[in-house]
Amino acid sequence: MSDQNNVALVTGASSGFGYEFCQLLAKDGYDLVVVARREDRLEELAKSIKQTYGQTVHLFPMDLTEENAPSKLYKLINERGLAIKILINNAGVGRFGKFHEMDQEANDEMIKLNISALTSLSKYFLNDMINSGEGRILNVASLASFQPAGPNMAVYYATKAYVLSLTRSLRIELKGTGVTVTVLCPGPTKTEFGSTDHVQSLRMFKLASISSRQVAEAGYRAMMKNRAVVVPGLFNKLLAIGGELPPRQLAIQINKFLLNK
Ligand SMILES: NC(=O)c1ccc[n+]([C@@H]2O[C@H](COP(=O)([O-])OP(=O)(O)OC[C@H]3O[C@@H](n4cnc5c(N)ncnc54)[C@H](OP(=O)(O)O)[C@@H]3O)[C@@H](O)[C@H]2O)c1
After folding, report:
1. Cβ(255)–Cβ(151) under 8 Å?
2. CA atoms of 110 and 92, how far apart (whole Å)
3. For 15-29, 44-58, 201-215, which range has the lowest pLDDT when averaged over its residues?
4. pTM for the structure as a whole
5. Ligand 1 probe mutation, 21, 22, 37, most atoms within 8 A of CB
6. CA 168, CA 141: separation in Å to the nearest integer?
7. Is 2 exposed, middle or buried (0-12, 13-18, 19+ CB in 10 A)?
8. Ligand 1 pocket test target in 159, 166, 191 with most atoms within 8 Å of CB
9. What residues flank ligand 1, with Cβ below 6 Å?
10. Interval between CA 139 and ligand 1 midpoint (Å)
11. Residue 67 vs residues 17, 92, 126, 204, 220: alpha-carbon distances, Å
12. What is the distance in A from the centroid of ligand 1 to the CA of 119?
C-alpha cells in the first residue's frame, strides 16, 4: 500500500500533458488527485493507473472556471484527509481569433482557468505546504509567456505571461520555506489543445516536434530538481530567448507570422 501522505494533485488530467504527468507521478509511487471536466476520462485514467502502478487515484470531476470551484476543490480534498505534496497547475485553454471578434465567454474562460484557478489553487495549497515545511508546485505556462505579444491569441498570450511572472515572484518569496515552485513553458505540442479553434493548423503548430510525454518528463524532472523555468526543446529555447531580446517589435512581427495559417 502506498504512503497516504504521498499525494499529488494534477489539474487537466484527462488529456495531454496532464495525463502524462499522472503516469510519471504514479510510476514514482504517488497517489493522485485528478481534476478535469470529463469524468469518463478520469475514470479510465484511474483504472489504468491502478492496474499498472497500483496507486490510488481520487477523482474530482469539475469545471474549474465555475464560481468558487478552486475553494470547493480545496475543501473536498481536506474533507477526504488528503495532504497534497505536489500541485501541478496544468489545466489551461487557448482560444484563437481576433480579440474584438471573439466571444467574451471564450476570453473569460481563458482568464478564469489559466489565471484565476491557477492562482487560487496555488494560494490554498501553498499555506498547507509551508506549514508542513515541504511541497512542490509546477505551473504550466507556455513559450507564449516570453513573447511581447501574440496577435490572434492576445488573451492567451497575456494569461501565460502572467503565469511566468507569478511563478518567478513566488520562487523568491518561498526561499527557505521548504516549498519549491517551477514553471514549465512548452512550445507547440500536439495534444487536444486548441483543436476546436483549428489552432493546430497555424504555422506555429507546424513547428511542433516533441511529444506530450517528452514535455511532461522535462517539466517533472525540472520540478523534482527545483529548477526555476524549463522550456523543452532546443528550437523552443531559442524562441523563448528571442522573445525577451530587444528589439521586441521584431518578436511581435514573428509572432504575428507564426499565429497565422
Ligand atoms: N499543447 C500545446 O501546444 C501547449 C503549449 C504551451 C502550453 N500549453 C499548456 O499546457 C497545458 C495543458 O494543455 P494540453 O496541451 O495538455 O491540452 P489538452 O490536451 O487540451 O488538456 C487540457 C486539460 O485541461 C482540462 N480543462 C480544460 N478546461 C477545463 C476546465 N474548465 N476545468 C477543468 N479542467 C479543464 C481538460 O480536461 P476536460 O476537457 O476534461 O475538462 C484537459 O485535461 C495548458 O495550460 C496549455 O495552455 C500547451
Report:
1. yes
2. 7
3. 201-215
4. 0.96
5. 37
6. 12
7. middle
8. 191
9. 12-18, 35-38, 41, 63-65, 90-94, 113, 140, 142, 186, 188-189, 191-193
10. 12
11. 25, 16, 21, 33, 30
12. 16
Alpha carbon 152 to chain centroid, angstroms: 21
Element (H, E) at 51: helix 39-53
Nearest 5°: CA angle at 53, between 52 and 55? Answer: 125
pLDDT at 1 over 70: no
pLDDT tens-digit series, residues 54-64: 999 999 999 99
Residue 67 confidence (pLDDT) above 90: yes
Name the pairing type of β-strands 135-140 and 84-89.
Answer: parallel
* CATH superfamily of the 7-258 domain: NAD(P)-binding Rossmann-like Domain (3.40.50.720)
- In the sheet with 84-89, reading across from the earlier edge strand, the strands are 57-61, 31-36, 7-11, 84-89, 135-140, 179-184, 229-230
Residue 3's pLDDT is 43
What residues are labeled active site?
156
Give the residue with greater pLDDT, 195 vs 177.
Answer: 177
pLDDT digits (tens, 9 = 90+) for 197-212: 567 678 888 777 799 9
